Amino acid sequence: METPHRPHGPARFAAFAPVPELDTVAYDRLAREVRGLLGIDLTQYKPAQVWRRVNGFATARGLPDPDALVAKARHDSVLRQAFLDMLTINVSEFFRNPEAWQMLADRYLKPMLHNQLMVRIWSAGCSLGYEPFTLAMLSREIAPTVTVRILATDLDDTTLSRARNATYTEAQMAGVSEARRAHFFRRDGDKWEVKPELAAMVTFRRHDLLKDACDKAFDVICCRNVVIYFTEPAKADLYTRFCDSLRPGGVLFLGATESIPNVRQLGLEPAGLTFYKRPG
Fold first, then answer.
1. How far is CA 97 from each of CA 2, 102, 105, 130, rounded to the nearest angstrom?
2. Which of 6, 51, 105, 139 has its CA 20 to 30 A from that of 73?
3. Averaged over 131-141, what is the pLDDT?
4. How many domains does the chain have?
5. Does position 228 have pLDDT exceeding 90, yes or no?
6. Average pLDDT score over residue span 28-46
7. Claim to verify: residue 104 and residue 205 sit in the same structural domain
């Protein structure tokens, strides 16, 4: 699992506030409210970690507890979206942990792109599109003419809408070199737009990792820092389904410090730091 970004703004200071012990009755109430308000099933998440994050989030916004947060979020669309972003961890950037991306390119993408007519990749939990467009850039640098199809999914419709827009601020472009900016983006005022030929490689779709069926026959699945608050049974079920969604020889790419216990029981095998492979 990669080291999560340090919170910005008020949430940064909330990290220092005392966190109340888990109140199971209040947590069950929160889970019911969140399911109705945001469509997220918190029973699949680790209660203690979620309780800590939700209380910190509420405190940072001057609210006394999760009940007050939910009540306000019902009528405040901006707060509701921020609440959803916090729960689904919509934090990422282009080429996050570049050494891991280089390993993906050298060890896995190059052989696939040099030996196959088409490569299929799934960015599971794509957030604002940094990950799928990073995958698209790497693929084009390795093999400019090979067909590459990238499915990018996320739970949050608002985030997906922003990802489809494929436009980023100067700050959001921090991980993109000048050469890549010139090759894959075009400047539009103070923003950067992904060029149409790169954007055409990516299909964005809403998908709930905890309950929706998964497509099959992927060469690579990227799911980085998305499931860190899932319960262990929920993770095991998801990793098993990821295995089923990979073609034999396909690769699962996780965050830098994420690991899968009892990995072979789930049908996968270790294939280097943060990488797991479906045998075949």
1. 8, 9, 13, 12
2. 6
3. 98
4. 2
5. no
6. 91
7. yes
